[in-house]
Structure formats: C-alpha cells, structure tokens
Design brief:
This is DUF4179 domain-containing protein. Keywords: Membrane, Transmembrane, Transmembrane helix. With about 425 residues, the protein is mainly beta. The protein folds into two domains: about 1-15 and about 270-430, no CATH class; about 40-265, no CATH class. It contains six helices and 27 strands. Strands 2, 3, 4, 5, 6, 7, 8 and 9 form an eight-stranded mixed sheet that branches. The chain has a five-stranded mixed sheet with strand order 18-19-20-21-22. Strand 7 (about 145-155) and strand 8 (about 160) form a beta hairpin. The radius of gyration is 25 Å and the shape is elongated.
Amino acid sequence: MTMNDTDVRAVLHRATDHLASPDGLVEGVRRGGRRRVARRRLLAAGLAVVTAGSIAGVLQFSGTGGERIDVASRLFDEATRGDLARDQAFLRDVREVWRRATELDDLRGEPHVVWAGNTPKGKAAYVTQRTMENPVVVQPGDGRLLGYGAFVVPTAKGPRILTLEQLYGSGYVDGNSQAVFLGPDRDTLLVLDFGRPVEYSPSMSYAPDGRIVRQHLPVTFRDGAASLPVPPQRTKVTVAVGRAPLSRDTRIHIVNESEILFPGGEDRGEPKRYDYVLPGADLAWGAAVDPTKRPLGAVVAFEPFIDIVGTHAVNPEAPSLSVFGGTPDGRRLLIETIQYDDDPGHAVAILGRGESEYTVVVTQSVDWTEPLPVRLRLPDGQGTLVAAPEAKLEYRAAVGAWQDAGRGAALVPVGAIEVRVTPASGVARTARL
C-alpha cells in the first residue's frame, strides 16, 4: 500500500503535511509516500499563479474590506540585494520581462526587484509587485492578497519569468516562493534569504531495509541569496529545502519542481490501490478493519520509511498495497508498500497491539514484475505474508497437496515452502519461500 502524506499527520498531530504531526504521513505511506504537487491555474497570459508564502510578522492590517492597505515589507520596499543590484541595464531587462509576462489588471506601482545576482547558470532575479486592492482570500483563510512575485531565470533565449505566485500578508507559511532550480539540468538551487536560517537536503537515498536517508545541510546566504550545487533534477526531485530545522512543517516550495514532475503539464495518473483484510483480522483488531485508518502507533512505526520533507510524483505503474491481518499469537499485522517516483519499492511489515505498541519486524524490496512480489517471513514462527494483487494464491508444505490461500494476499503457515500464483491471465507460476 502506500500511505498518504495526509493520514499520518492527522493521526500524529493533525495530519497536515509532516510529522510534527504532518498530514498525510500515513497516506504517504499508504500511497507509497508519494505526494502530488498541486496543479497550477493558468492565466490568459500563460503564466501559472499559485499561492506563495506569507510575509508574516512584517505586515499589519487595519482595514476589513478590500481596500488598499499600505504596509512596509522587505518584499516590496527594501533596497535590491545581490551583486547585480546596481546593474541598471539588467534591472531594466528584468522589469521589462516582468511587464511583458504578467499583464495582470490588478497591479499598481512599479515592479520591485528584490534580488538580482550572478549565479553559476547566469544572471537571475526575484521580482514582486503590489496589487490595487488587498482582498481577504479564502485560501489561506483570513490572508490578504498583497501582490505577486516570481523568479526571473537565465535561459539560452534570455531571461525568463517563472510561475507567478500570490503573496499574502498572513495565514500561510512564509517562504513558499523562496527557491528555484537553475540550468538545463536543474543542478543549481537558488534560495533567497528571507531572514531565517534555512537547511537543505541535496538528495534522498535508502538504507538496506528501506528507511529514508537524508543529510540536512545549512544554507549560507550572501547578500540576499545562496546558489547551491545539487544533483541534476531531470526527471524527479531529490532536493528538499526549508527553514531550519528542515521538517514537513517548514518546507519551502521550489517554484519549478512541477516542471520536473509533470513535464508538459500532463497528469501521470493514479496507481491502482489494493487493500486486503485477511480472514480473522478482526480477532486481532477487535472490530471490522477500516483500511483507511491507522492507529497512532502504526503511523509512528512507518514514519522512518516516509520522505516527509521531499516532493515526489505518483508512479502509476507501481500498485499501492496494504494488508491487514492477525498473527497466530494474536498480534495485529499491517503491511504497506512504499515507493517514490521510479525508485525501487519496499514492503514494510509491522506487528503490534492496541493503539501504540507497533514494531517494524521485516522489510523487503518489491519488484512488481515478479509473480509473487511480496513475501515477508514474520518472526517467532508466525508464518509468511505473501501478496500478488488480484491473483489466486495457493501454498503447500514439503509434503502435501496445494491449499487454497484466497486472492491477492495471504498469511501462509511457517511450514509452507511454495506458493502458486495464478493471475488474471490464468498462467500459473510457482514461487519458493
């Protein structure tokens, strides 16, 4: 299965975006921990406008309607920073690119270049502009729309403006428009200095048992920004960045990660989800099992296998599998498959009782092209959990006939040595345990 990044946060804290009680951790686990990047709304000008970070702590409002509110903010009023702050020719080019690209009818004043500087990939900048009015918006709740902001990045054809973002005065996590990938291979991360310590993780890897491994490094700013070398981000995003300490709740949105995860703006589709409840599971769980819910202890047990700070696309070719069952000694059994992008998937089995006492007992890499992709031998002679979505399963011991084990998933006894898998195609194959 793959839990979704929203289930766990809800269970742990509320279920919002990362443990600190992030939302969707469980669903992140449930859906292979894959988190879909929000799709952008296109303007007539062809630019995407998305919600960006709040400029919280800097702005105060006294009005209650949609009237114009003048407030001081580093994103609109402070002097331009960066080593190109006095390059008037470049600043003119940046403002002209902004004017040609935005074409919004609710802007006022002149575009403000917050930062302009040289990077290993060329000249870049970040621009903002105020709006005519500051209406209260629904998302985020009680926030006021103050203006728009966007990165201007170097390309072979000259400066290009990226996703236009709405800037709010309150009610949202600040810093969402703080980072961008640069270069054809997107191997440079540009991060703006918004006055708070920032950490980044350049890549994600896996321990032998499937646990997520990330190194958190401090970002050192100079004159308003930092340019960081990162692995090429061609087809997936391995980088994570956020206010220190980096967590699900402090992550910073990287503006053009959607271009990587959804090339051409096309949706990748959803993976097929399989939830199996084994016969007798209710004896261990105490009631009818609800595959959409996880006990708090189960959520915590799965957390090390979830990339709670990263951004990933759904892999529609990798099924999302969860199995609920009970062991012969009366413990609760829960298996989830977790997979990111086109990385290898992992099946993780936990055992426990009640709401809090759960332990990871065995993990296994998953190859969905195998006839029996999941086979997890449980400790203490509790049997072997096997799974092949939608297939008919049979098992046998060293001596004896084939025994029916149901469909999709089964807990076969410790003495079983072979499993026969008959998929919908009807061609049976045998797997040794």
